[in-house]
Design goal:
Chain lengths: 307, 307
């Protein structure tokens, strides 16, 4: 499907340099937009262009004008001159050739917060959606999303769900996401909204998915085929349920779930892991990392994209 | 030491029936004292006596009169006729023969909340302390503690420490506890006060200790040599860092700790695991439990007491 649509766009090879590896910048919401702008600054740097073109997708939100103004100022402050907020209010907008051109030619694509269901309802399966994947895979563009835009990154997306202290059965509903991460599910505002229980409930129901909880003003930065790092102010929590056992099938709705042997990784900003020649190491110190993280590096950086 | 002190107490064998296995009732604080009294009721049942004698130790608190009145009413409501609150305001009180006699003859010993450091400062190493261990080991008495009384249960005790969202280095200080659990450390008011970060910080610094986080109105009930169960309203969270790696030694004070491969078990009320003939099973359903829990059952129920 991706292949077919991309042919229809009739871009020349010159427009699509294939060398660069794309980055995902998955932000837990509430990133600083006024002061140090640590996370937004890194996003701009990861476009790896002296004069990057950045497009902002506000489709998750009902407030295009207000939100695009905030990011226009933030990216302007960061020295980005080519910046454009795309107003996508309908699926027709998301299939419009001008929108597609803007996405395909962008070095950085930034999805704002709002409601991830709205975002997917507007762009899921459209030409804009295909263009985002092409830009990421073929041009090595940097794709970022904050809050709802972060949740939308994974193929299986948390649509909504009460975040209680403990994991309860049946409190989280899923929807189809953008598919930049195939074997993981993203949750945001993670520590601030006490969402470990909710994320463990997701993993209890779907032990094959790696749960990723991202704090506010914090981002998980994935380099395609290489590794990942954590930047910003907080931490990223990974919940790995592949060796877990639970009583999920035996209990009723809203009951607390018994979870045994959940593997949890807490990665503060500064943590960085890269894949090199069959082994993994800490990107800063070069020290060998815990073998359990090898698979995690694979899960996050392989980016089997939609097929 | 325990042996020597116990001889000095000159109790006859008849006073110390050795058949019963002692129970620990480790309560996360704020247990219901007025309505269903689920946790306190179980404590009374676990004395396994038709007419149990229950003593209440308020030594953790500055408010002996107020607190003992609350528990006197609660245990009275539960049909306990032989109940006594022990006023221990000094180490002399804790070495007083009458206090020792009351503890040694009690079927249930209940430690209230307050400050665990105060509790240990008053009774640590005293004759009252020795009597508690003798009653537990030799008579099979039931020993309960709530809040500070729960923290005091373990040999290594959390003295104080800020409970932030994430584990930070150097925020938790330790003290010597009562030693009813040798290879674990207890934290209470666990979910309500968001203490997972603090407990992970403890485990990061001491990976050989099993972290036990107990919610309010919830108890971990350990049967010596047999197994454990969770009762009440919430859950018990176990943090096992024995296969963990962390950057604890490389970072400064108050920095977030990177933790990789923490094994986490979440056990809601109703969970119950018993040790039988070399295997472990779920006490209700009889189903085999995850092998990771076998060791946990050993750690909790072996109760190598102070030597």
């Amino acid at each position: 499907m991706l292949q077919a649509s991309s042919q229809a766009l009739r871009l020349s090879d010159a427009d699509l340099p294939r060398s660069a590896a794309g980055h995902l910048v998955i932000i837990g919401g509430n990133e600083d937009k006024v002061h140090d702008k640590l996370v937004l600054r890194r996003f701009v740097e990861l476009t790896a262009r002296r004069e990057p073109k950045i497009v902002v997708l506000t489709a998750a939100s009902n407030y295009h004008e207000e939100i695009s103004a905030v990011y226009d100022r933030a990216f302007g402050d960061l020295g980005v001159t080519q910046r454009k907020a795309l107003a996508i209010h309908s699926r027709e907008d998301a299939n419009h050739p001008a929108v597609v051109e803007d996405i395909l030619s962008a070095d950085g694509i930034f999805m704002t917060g709002g409601d991830q269901r709205r975002l997917l309802a507007l762009i899921g399966g459209t030409a804009a959606y295909t263009a985002m994947h092409r830009a990421f895979i073929e041009r090595g563009s940097c794709v970022a999303g904050t809050s709802a835009g972060a949740s939308a990154m994974s193929a299986h997306m948390i649509a909504e769900g009460q975040g209680d202290i403990h994991p309860e059965k049946g409190v989280v509903s899923f929807a189809v996401g953008l598919g930049f991460l195939q074997r993981a599910v993203v949750d945001q505002h993670f520590s601030e909204r006490r969402r470990l229980g909710r994320l463990m409930a997701v993993v209890a129901q779907n032990p094959s998915l790696l749960g990723i909880g991202i704090d506010e003003d914090t981002a998980l930065v994935v380099e395609r085929g290489s590794g990942f790092e954590v930047i910003g102010d907080g931490a990223v929590t990974l919940v790995d349920g592949r060796q877990m056992s639970s009583n999920f099938l035996d209990i009723g709705e809203r009951e607390l779930i018994e979870l045994i042997n959940v593997r949890l990784h807490l990665l503060p900003a500064g943590a960085s892991y890269v894949h090199r020649a069959g082994t993994c190491s800490d990107a800063q110190g070069g020290r060998e990392i815990n073998p359990t993280l090898h698979e995690i590096v694979d899960i996050l950086s392989s980016n089997e994209t939609v097929s």
